Amino acid sequence: MPLDRGGGLTVPVPTSSAGYRRSSGCGRVRNRCHAEHVRRELLDVADALGVRHGLARGRDHVVELLTQSRANSVFRRNHLDERHLKLLLSFVLRADSNCLDVGSYKGLFLNEFRRLAPGGHHIAYEPLPQLCGQLRQRFPEMDVRQRALSNEEGEASFVHVRDAPAYSGLKEGHYPRPMSTETISVRTERLDDHLPDGWLPTFIKIDVEGAEALAIEGALDTLRRGRPIVAFEYGGGTGEKFGTSDHDIYRLLCEDVGLRLFDMDGHGPFGPAQFEDELATGERWNWVAHE
Predict the structure, then answer these.
(1) Do 123 and 236 touch, CB atoms closer than 8 A?
(2) Is there a single domain that holds both residue 131 and residue 36?
(3) How do residues 112-143 score in pLDDT, each as one tens digit?
(4) Residue 165 CB coordination number (10 Å)
(5) Is residue 287 within 8 Å of residue 263, measured between CB atoms?
(6) Is the same domain home to 64 and 155?
(7) SS3 73
């Protein structure tokens, strides 16, 4: 998404067969799964006809075309969502608005905060040491923290995906291709316990590779008092590795905090069943919650 985990949003990667069904149309992993399915189907036909070897080149070309088509669709969705979110920020942020970026990565949204709300007190969370250091250099006026937001204080293992840091998170995921990873230790903290006196956000962005519920649970008091706009990535069953269901996300933001849930095109507000139906299409993974 516009949520800045890799030059835009990383498409959520399904974590189980159930998660895959809910994301049947979702992103690069779906491309790969469809490609393998098409290859197997074509090989079966080729074996039946006795022309397996001769079909290989044409088969791979067909698969490449199908996969590229889906990749282009994902790119267009992300690009459109990013444009819509930037437009939203330009309408709602005052010059002195406070903003929070959870999972800052390379600082796409920090640039927007600086441009649109130069007088605000902005807080950013980025657990990866190198990325956090770069953000501190680029945004010295902001409070950049090398922490992972969660629902409890302490230390936690954090999986750094060296080949694609955008996929890094508190738990190992299912990646679109074999990747090199390392496990590091990071500090976790509850947002509610680490804010300046009187600080309340106008806007929050959350992109934490499946740990959205943990971050929200540790920020419920701030969310209830500030009632900010919350833009977040969620989909593809990524929350399952944390024991999070689709309804958990809806309950936290809509029932516990009192916000309403929309997609990035403004459709909504969604009820719990509608939200689950939208997730099941796998066509959307970026959402906005607000009053």
Answers:
(1) no
(2) no
(3) 999 999 999 999 999 999 999 999 999 999 99
(4) 17
(5) yes
(6) no
(7) helix
